[in-house]
Automatic annotation (TrEMBL):
Residues noted as binding Zn(2+) in the record, renumbered to the chain: 136, 139, 162, 165
Native organism: Ornithinimicrobium pekingense
Reactions catalysed, as given in the entry: N(6)-succinyl-L-lysyl-[protein] + NAD(+) + H2O = 2''-O-succinyl-ADP-D-ribose + nicotinamide + L-lysyl-[protein]; N(6)-acetyl-L-lysyl-[protein] + NAD(+) + H2O = 2''-O-acetyl-ADP-D-ribose + nicotinamide + L-lysyl-[protein]
EC top class, as a word: transferase
Protein's UniProt name: NAD-dependent protein deacylase
Amino acid sequence: MTSLTDATDQVPEAILDLARGAARVCVLTGAGMSAESGIPTFRDVQVGLWERFDPAELASPQAWERDHAQVWAWYAWRASLVRRAAPNAGHEALAAWQRRPGVDLAVVTQNVDDLHERAGAEVLAHVHGSLFTLRCARCDRPSDAAYPEVTGPVGHLDPPVCGVCGGPVRPGVVWFGEALPEADFLAGADAAREADLVLVVGTSGLVHPAATIPHLAGARGVPVVEVNPRETAVSEAADEVWRAPAAEALPALVA
Ligand code: BV8
Ligand code: ZN
């Protein structure tokens, strides 16, 4: 396996050729895309940040029903982390690539943060929703409430209430067991199937149906390239893998 340092010093030839020749690029990103911005991923072994919370358990309607205040506190803390974070060089590289004349680059993200947008990229689909789009858990109306600034892992915070029906306000994210926003998922799947190149960056490929997107592209003969320091559930579907971190690999690829 090429060492990370070598890998990011020069882009693997086959990957560079695929990127240079691609007019339509679809980039599927996961939590690893934001790791170098200091946002903890879901499944990497974390020190500190997630020790007290099991993301898969808290990101669920069951947890919300059981204890709104604990779930709201967890999201308020994550929102505070994201607000304090900055897009990394990987986000910036994708935004620059997207602005390149002759390139049609679709960002399809599983991430609920807004770091792609803050780097200047247009995001085609947030397949797991967005942290900062709040809505009423009872009547589904959008809410203009905001997360309080939270500086550390807190136990409980009462969520704001809907100005119309008085229901609790929830994050506009897709919880485990909830359906993905159909328009986003279909747009992401179509972009992958019609691309000249699909780049899969920073995802363990474990969460469905988002994880099927690279496979949908591969089934159409679209070249799939994985950028991830570690092997994942997507690796075997990739035509090329680049074991490198996103914030080092993507700037080299887009240079
Ligand atoms: C649904 C929003 C049906 C919330 C998230 C068995 C088989 C298949 C499916 C299932 C199953 N059992 C249950 C299911 C369904 C379930 C699922 O897939 N479960 C899995 C875990 C088994 N899926 C669902 O429930 C989905 N809904 O199926 O609904 C339905 C249909 C109709 C009607 C009703 C219902 C909903 C899934 C969405 C869940 N919400 N997020 C929130 O954020 O709080 S998922 C969550 O995980 C995040 O969105 C995250 O993005 C996503 C995926 O994780 P990754 O992004 O891949 O992150 P992870 O930590 O796993 O990996 C990080 C990677 O980065 C690693 O590979 C690491 O090596 C790499 N990395 C680290 N550093 C870097 C790096 N890479 C590059 N550079 C670096 N520097
Ligand atoms: Zn309401």
